[in-house]
Design brief:
This protein is mainly beta. Helices cover 8% and strands 48% of the residues. The protein has three helices and 13 strands, in the order E-E-E-E-E-E-H-H-E-H-E-E-E-E-E-E. The protein starts with a strand and ends with a strand.
Length: 187
């Protein structure tokens, strides 16, 4: 983790620990002093692929929230920027993802509830994307780039309406992520 200037903005750089090989793990930088249950998280994100990124890397970047004390449970909303402009419509439909650690990773949710926890939106690598996550009870909405309508709605956050915890700046396999202008509003 380091602070750098990226495309004209001061940003926190986060790179996935190369020793973690599994998908949808606790690969985030925990934001100290945060305790979040309900409210709004806003942050600008930019992702790039690492030089040695595997072929399946997608520029995975997002926000983990309601992270418990030992990082063993949390909710997460993340982006796959390379999917948004792929030639395959199936890949495009997997541009945004929700998952819940540890029991409901993307592969289980995709298998058991196809298309319910994923969506499409336009975005790209190496450009700033504004994420706004609104959480209330068991519901989360993800708004991108100041759109008035959510790009993804999750009506059943898997850890339930009483979960609470920290916020984390999340990246996954093959990603160099940048985070800027983090704002947190709690109810």
């Amino acid at each position: 983790m380091s602070t750098e200037k990226q495309k004209g903005r001061k940003a926190l750089k986060v790179v996935k620990d190369s020793t973690v090989k599994a998908f949808d793990e606790a690969t985030f930088i925990r934001v100290s002093g945060t305790d979040f249950k309900d409210g709004t998280i806003e942050v600008q994100v930019l992702s790039q692929l690492l030089e040695d990124a595997p072929e399946f890397a997608r520029g995975f970047i997002g926000v983990a929230f309601r992270i418990n004390e030992d990082n063993s449970e949390f909710e997460c909303l993340y982006l796959r920027p390379t999917n948004a402009r792929a030639d395959s419509q199936v890949r495009r439909n997997h541009s945004i993802q929700y998952y819940s650690y540890p029991d409901f990773k993307f592969d289980r949710l995709r298998r058991e509830s196809p298309e319910e926890y994923e969506s499409y939106t336009d975005m790209a690598l190496n450009e700033w994307i504004t994420m706004k996550i609104v959480v209330k009870g068991k519901r989360a909405e993800l708004f991108l780039n100041n759109n008035k309508q959510p790009s993804l709605i999750v009506n059943d956050l898997k850890h339930g309406e009483n979960a609470t915890g920290a916020i984390g700046l999340w990246v996954d396999i093959g990603t160099e992520g940048y985070f800027s202008n983090l704002k947190l509003y709690t109810d």
